[in-house]
Amino acid sequence: xxxxxxxxxxxxxxxxxxxxxxxxxxxxxxxxxxxxxxxxxxxxxxxxxxxxxxxxxxxxxxxxxxxxxxxxxxxxxxxxxxxxxxxxxxxxxxxxxxxxxxxxxxxxxxxxxxxxxxxxxxxxxxxxxxxxxxxxxxxxxxxxxxxxxxxxxxxxxxxxxxxxxxxxxxxxxxxxxxxxxxxxxxxxxxxxxxxxxxxxxxxxxxxxxxxxxxxxx
Length: 217
Prior knowledge:
CATH superfamily: Hypothetical protein af1432
Number of helices: 10
Distance between the termini: 43 Å
Oligomer: single chain
CATH architecture: Orthogonal Bundle
Helix content: 40-55%
Radius of gyration: 19 Å
């Protein structure tokens, strides 16, 4: 963890000097390099947050989701999304999906951010008939370019990842993907790639109707 006693000279931002802001910029770079450490720590903290009633904790759910994504041949954007998709559960339980999406938004494809931001609604397709939420709430987005990606994300990686018998990859094994993604320049069009639809690896070339027949969604 980066520590230093060097500080700026101002107590209000409009009184700062160029040297002050250069100092802040120098301190920000190593702080960003430590992002994987902070996200891993936040995920590990989910092991002890609350007794949710699920057979596994939120950290293990994240690991299962990310492991499934990795074993499907997903790229780092999808793997990091699967790992962090519920990271906002403690601070924003009613809209944790939006919180997680904002964390990854500057660094991953727009498609991936959109899926994470909407996965709560798409997840209702699987649980709604039993818990009183609308299983067809996702239909308001039918026709959106990222609809099938969101449906597949929930069906293949999220809603099935509450299995205590599943052998997940270790948390540390995901450090390379976290490091790669969060080392990217923020909001760079080479990585955000708006309006591009790649889909999930196993979803390419297959429709939701076919998945439905196979019991996948």
